Amino acid sequence: MAVPNQEFLWGIFQSVDRDRSGYINTEELQQALSNGTWKPFNPETVRLMIGMFDRQNRGQIGFEDFGALWKYVTDWQNCFRSFDRDNSGNIDKQELNIALNTFGYKLSDGLVETLVRKFDRNGDGTILFDDFIQACITLHTLTAAFRQYDTDQDGFITIHYDQFLNMVLSLKM
Ligand SMILES: [Ca+2]
Ligand SMILES: [Ca+2]
């Protein structure tokens, strides 16, 4: 999907920028994304998304970066809907397994279960939209870090304690 026209985006930007500061901060984005759901949108996911699109390192999003952020959220919504096969509004273990396979991950059943447990904030064995985004970004970040060392791509790495700590501590998550 293409980035929509500027006038349309400006309208959305202004409604999200509640204090009219010209920037969207984490609370404003969280409120905008929470519309229509019972729980506040996962603050970790909001933080991750601001961090990804905040090119000026202000800790908030100006209009120049808003189009990319808006497209990102919309793409995730479409992705989530397409993997929520039974239209339950959440992703269960089977649906997550299919999604991750489609993304190119080869994970064991046990690991998929662990992921559901970790990102299941409701405690009902399923993952909601915001937690799904967090799960996917986390998996992507960890996999990218692992691959830096797995140069022959055989799924094994041998690293020194120092390298391990360095890898974990430099993760942006
Ligand atoms: Ca603002
Ligand atoms: Ca579902």
UniProtKB/TrEMBL annotation:
Molecular-function annotations in GO: calcium ion binding; calcium-dependent protein binding
Subcellular compartments: Cytoplasm
UniProt keyword terms in alphabetical order: Calcium, Cytoplasm, Metal-binding, Repeat
Keyword Metal-binding: yes
KW Repeat (keyword) present: yes
SMART domains linked: EFh (SM00054)
GO cellular component terms, A-Z: cytoplasm
Main location: cytoplasm
Name this protein carries in UniProt: EF-hand domain-containing protein
Source organism (scientific name): Ceutorhynchus assimilis
Upper taxonomic lineage: Eukaryota, Metazoa, Ecdysozoa, Arthropoda, Hexapoda
